[in-house]
Design goal:
By secondary structure, this protein is an alpha+beta fold. Helices cover 66% and strands 8% of the residues.
Length: 395
């Protein structure tokens, strides 16, 4: 209790202060109107968001319960219950907390001035007792302000949890919907503040992050990242500032434990389900030894093979059967040379990387053409050879 414990609510206190409080309570219409006017004037957001009739009713109940509790709080503590209701209601209406508390400060100032006026008029000899009882009176209304503030914060926390859960459900629905309709896109835009026509990428992980609000974004490589829970791990929606995913991939590599599939950049919220499927494809196409980020842009051929295993097997049998039937050292040399040549696009560079003569590379490539029946100067055959090579690697 601190200093309040030095002043007891004795019989004389209850009689003098109670008399003044009851006289104020007998006719509170003027008091209510004055307090309402002060709140509406000095709390502009409250005046804008709270209907005047509702605020008048709140003032009326607050004054009635508060004045009744001044001599001695009753067991029902109706003034505190009313304060809690007011705090929750103002939180729902979006009134700033400082204005909620200020309204109670305005109330205690007005009530105190009126108590002094009544005692000075009707029992001036008791004015000293009123002054010595002031801490109880002020503390009583301050207690109401504290209760209103606590209820306000609890209501805000509930609102945040509700809003976060709604955002989580909306984002999850969007990522699972093949062709999202405009109302869902509008809801995502308004709830998460994402640009409808912005540039995005999606990353799919195989682990669950520590839970945090979906509306609380991360920043990676300067890009906003919103996380959502997936079936087997978490999903990141990345609002890109540019089309280059390199920095985002590096940031994901540093931040996320385990494998990550990363989609290419897509345009607009409506494309996020497509991007999510591409990220799933990238993750499914990773090799067992790969633990970091697998970007679909870097592994398109492998992803094609993984996405269509029957077609990949058909290509392997049609194109690579004769190659694989060669002695293992020869087939390995031919396949390694093809892989290097496809990667660098240059016979000379392939020779440098393979530590052999340029003519050796040319001889191996001619041998490969002979065995497969495909020509490396035919674009269609190059594509089929590249896919067939990936199908061999995937086995």
């Amino acid at each position: 209790m601190g200093a309040l414990g030095l002043i007891e609510r004795n019989h004389t206190h209850k009689e003098v202060v109670g008399l003044a409080a009851r006289r104020l309570a007998d006719d509170t219409a003027d008091l209510e109107a004055r307090l309402l006017q002060r709140i509406r004037t000095q709390c502009p957001v409250s005046a804008r968001l709270v209907p005047e009739a509702e605020q008048l009713e709140s003032v009326r109940l607050g004054l009635a319960y508060g004045l009744a509790s001044i001599p001695e709080p009753g067991p029902e503590r109706r003034e505190l219950l009313q304060a809690a209701r007011t705090g929750r209601r103002r939180a729902a209406q979006g009134v700033p907390l400082d204005e909620v508390i200020k309204s109670y400060h305005l109330a205690v100032q007005l009530v105190w001035d009126e108590l002094v006026r009544v005692i000075r008029r009707d029992a001036p000899e008791q004015l000293d007792l009123l002054m010595r009882s002031s801490m109880h009176i002020w503390a009583g209304i301050e207690r109401q302000a504290d209760v209103a503030a606590d209820a306000y914060r609890e209501a805000q926390a509930d609102q945040a949890r509700f809003a976060d859960e709604r955002a989580r459900l909306l984002l999850g629905e969007l990522l699972e919907t093949p062709a999202p309709e405009q109302p869902l896109i509008d809801a995502i835009r308004d709830t998460l503040g994402l640009e409808e026509n912005g540039s995005y990428a999606v990353a799919v992980t195989r682990y669950a992050r520590p839970r945090r609000g979906v509306r609380q974004p991360d920043l990676m490589a300067g890009c906003r990242v919103v996380w959502s829970a997936g079936h087997d791990g978490d999903i990141a929606v990345v609002a890109l500032r540019c089309d280059d995913l390199g920095k985002v991939a590096a940031a994901l590599e540093a931040a996320v434990q385990g494998p990550v599939g990363l989609s290419p950049a897509v345009s607009g919220l409506a494309s996020l389900p497509f991007a999510r499927r591409l990220a799933d494809t990238a993750l499914a196409g990773r090799r067992s030894e790969e633990r970091g980020v697998v970007a679909l842009d870097d592994h398109l051929l492998r992803s094609f093979v993984k996405a269509a295993p029957d077609l990949a097997e058909l290509l392997r049998r049609q194109i690579m059967t004769e190659v694989l039937a060669l002695p293992s050292h020869e087939s390995s040399a031919l396949l390694d040379t093809l892989a290097c040549w496809l990667e660098v696009g240059s016979t000379a560079e392939a020779a440098r990387r393979l530590y052999c003569h340029r003519n050796t590379v040319l001889n191996r490539l001619r041998r490969l053409e002979q065995v497969t029946g495909r020509k490396l100067d035919e674009p269609r055959d190059v594509v089929l050879l590249a896919l067939a090579l990936e199908s061999v690697k995937a086995r």
